[in-house]
Amino acid sequence: MLNRNRTSKFITAVAVTGLMITGTVVPSAAAKDATKLTGNGKKVKNVILMISDGWGYNQVLATDYFTDGQAGSQIYERFPTKVAMSTYSFGDITTDDDADSVYTAGLWQSFDLFKKNPTDSAAAGTAMSTGIKTYDAAIGVDQEFKDLRHITDDFESLGRATGVISSVEFSHATPASFVAHNVSRNNYSDIANEMILDSATDVIMGAGNPWFDDNGNLKSSPGYQYVGGQATWDGLVAGTLDTSDADGDGISDRWTLIQTQEEFEAIQTGETPNRLIGVPQVFTTLQQSRGGDRMANAFAVDFNDTVPTLDVMTRGALNVLDNDADGFFLMVEGGAIDWAGHANQSGRLIEEQADFNEAVAAVCDWVEQNSSWSETLVIVTGDHETGYLTGTAGVYDAVLNNGQGNMPTLAWNSGDHTNQLIPFYAKGAGAEIFKKLADEMDPVRGSYLDNTEIVSAIRALIG
C-alpha cells in the first residue's frame, strides 16, 4: 500500500479549514459547529459523494415508479437528511449571492424561467469540489481562471486516499472537476493528463477507452482524446508511465490499468494495487450511447454485455480506497442520466437512474459491512436537472405512476439543463449539518442549501 503519511505537492502551508489557492472561504456558523454533530466531537473518516448528473425530483420519481411501482422506494429517499439544493453558476441567476430572493420571488412565477441561464456540469462540479462558484465550462478554476483547491486536495493533505468514478468518460466534466484545473471542460486530453500524470488521486474509473465504440466493439481506428493521447494510453497499458509521487516518498507511483469486465468484477474483493485506473471497453458511456432504438422503453434494448455496471465499479473503488486506515474521499457519478435527459430518452433515463440507485445501495452495504455510519458520511445529490421533466407538457407537475414495469406518464420540456432546485440526501457522520446549512426557503421545495456549502461542511467535519 501507499504510505499515507503524505507530504502532498498540492498543499504546503494551506490549512484545510477553508483556505483556497485564490482566497479564503469563511464557513457558516453551522459549518463551524460541524464536529459537534458527529458524536463526542468525532471527526468524519470517510466521505462518499454520489452525483446523479442531470437528476431532479421527477427523474427520481419516474424511476421509482418503473422499478418499484411506488414513490420513495430508494434507500437514499429514507436518509435522515432530506433537503433541496440550488445549483446556479457564477453570474447565471444572481450577482449578489441572494439566491433566496431569486428562487422564492422568481422561478415559480414563470414556467419558462426555469430554463433561463442554467449551470453546466463543470461549474456545478467545481462548486461542489471547491466551494466556489465559477463560469460554465470551467474546471477547478475561479472567475479569474485561477486554480482552486479541491476537496480531494484536503483529503490528500491529511494522508487519506481519494477516488473519482463515472459511467461516462473519466475526463468528463464532473469527475474532472474534482481533480483537474482547466479553463474549458472540452480540453479532454489535457484534463486526462493532469488527472493521470499530475494528481495524487488513487482511483480513477470511467469510460473513454480509445479502442472500443459505444457498443463495446473493437474499432479499427482508436480515439485517444479522453485518455490523454496515445503516449499516455500506451504507457498505461505497458505499465511504464511515469506519474506523480502520490505518497510523497520521492518515487513515482504508477497506475495499474484494468479494462475488461472480468477485471472489474475481480477487483471488488481481495488484494488490490496501490493505484487503480479502470477504463471499461467502451467509448463514451457504459450503456446510454449504445445502439438499437434509443427511444425505446426502459430495458427493452439489450445492454452492452462486456462492461461493468456502476455498482461494480463502485465496489471495486471502495475495495482499493478502504485499505487506507486514515480514511478516504470518493466521488461516484451517474453521468449518463444527463445524456438521456438531453436526448429526451425516457427509457434510457430510467435505466441510467436505476444503475445509479444500485450504486448507492452498494455504498450503503459497504458502510454497514466494512465501516459504520458513525465514521462515514454518504451524500447523494446531483449537479443540476436536465430536460425539464414533468408529467404534463408545459405544466410543472409530477410524473404519473402506471405501475411497476410500465413507463410512467411524463413530458420533456427542454433538451438542456434547468436551474430548478434538486434533491439532496445525506446519512452518516455529521449529516445533520446539512439541515442547518439549508437555511433558505423555497415555497414549493421548502428548506434548501447551495451546492457550495457541501465543501464547507465536509472541511469542517474532517477537521
- Strand % is 15-25%
Counted up, domains total 1
Global mean pLDDT: 90
**Rg, nearest Å:** 21 Å
CATH topology tier name: Alkaline Phosphatase, subunit A
Structural features, described:
This protein has 463 residues and is an alpha/beta fold. It has a single domain (24-441), classed as Alkaline Phosphatase, subunit A (3-Layer(aba) Sandwich), CATH 3.40.720. The protein is built from 14 helices and 16 strands. Mean pLDDT is 90; it is low at 1-27 and 94-101. The two termini are 24 Å apart.
In terms of topology, how is this protein built?
Blueprint: E1 19-20, E2 23-24, H1 29-32, E3 46-54, H2 57-68, E4 81-86, H3 99-105, H4 121-130, H5 151-157, E5 161-169, H6 173-176, H7 188-198, E6 203-207, H8 230-238, E7 256-258, H9 261-266, E8 276-278, H10 310-321, E9 328-334, H11 336-342, H12 346-370, E10 376-386, E11 389-390, E12 411-412, E13 417-418, E14 422-428, H13 433-437, E15 440-442, E16 446-450, H14 453-461
Parallel strand pairs: 3-9, 3-10, 4-16, 5-6, 5-9, 6-8, 7-8
Antiparallel strand pairs: 1-2, 4-14, 10-13, 10-14, 11-12, 15-16
Helix pairs in contact: 2-12, 10-12, 11-12
Give descriptors for this structure.
463 residues, alpha/beta, Alkaline Phosphatase, subunit A, 12-stranded mixed sheet, two-stranded antiparallel ribbon, 14 helices, 16 strands, 28% helix, 17% strand, globular, disordered N terminus
Summed up, what is this model?
With 463 residues, the protein is α/β, with parallel strands linked by helices.
